[in-house]
Amino acid sequence: MPTRKKTATTKKTPPARKKSTVKKKRAPTKKTAVRTRAKTAVSKKHLTPTLTLDSVAVINNAKVLYEELGKLTNTDVNIDASAVEMIDTAILQLLYAFVTKVTSNNHKINWINPSDEFISRARLIGLSRNMGIA
């Protein structure tokens, strides 16, 4: 049998990678992705702040609503619930806690034309009387 000659093998080094100069885009954070339209406006006639609820008031908007309500605990408040088409239990519970806190501080809550959906949901979970809606 013929013998093979061993040849010296050298390891090839891979070519150096070039650094990419393209910046990756970041996904939007959760804070910017979820927004609410709960607004506080001051009426010039009565100087009573008015909180306007969105047409869709669900748990996704609870944090923003909580922060808005926190600013209004030491004054009389008007709550405009006329545009509410859908509201979940979490928001109703949050509003109930707010009403309880405001009334315990000897201030008043004035509901501005609450929608039928708002009233029926509050009645369904037994909070309408306690909130002063109906």
What can you see in these coordinates?
The chain has about 130 residues and is an alpha/beta fold. The protein has one domain (about 35-130): Transcription Regulator spoIIAA (2-Layer Sandwich), CATH 3.30.750.24. About 30% of the residues lie in helices and about 15% in strands. The protein has 5 helices and 6 strands, in the order H-E-E-E-H-E-E-H-E-H-H. It has helices at about 30-35, 60-70, 90-105, 115-125, 130, and strands spanning about 40, 50, 55, 75-80, 85, 110. The strands form 2 sheets. It has a 4-stranded mixed beta sheet. Strand 1 and strand 2 (about 50) form a beta hairpin.
Biggest β-sheet description: 4 strands, mixed
**Class derived from helix and strand content:** alpha/beta
Assembly context of the chains: single chain
Strand order in the largest sheet: 1-2-4-6
Q: Would you count the extended β strands for me?
A: 6
The H-and-E topology, N to C, reads as HEEEHEEHEHH
Q: Quickly give the CATH architecture.
A: 2-Layer Sandwich
Global Rg: 30 Å
The fourth-level CATH homologous superfamily is STAS domain
Instruction: Give the CATH level 1 class.
Output: Alpha Beta
Globally, the shape reads rod-shaped
Number of domains: 1
- Unreliable sequence segments: 27-36
Terminal Cα span: 106 Å
- The portion of residues forming beta strands comes to 5-15%
Mean pLDDT: 80
| The CATH topology | Transcription Regulator spoIIAA
Annotation field: number of helices: 5
Which percent range fits the helix content?
A: 25-40%
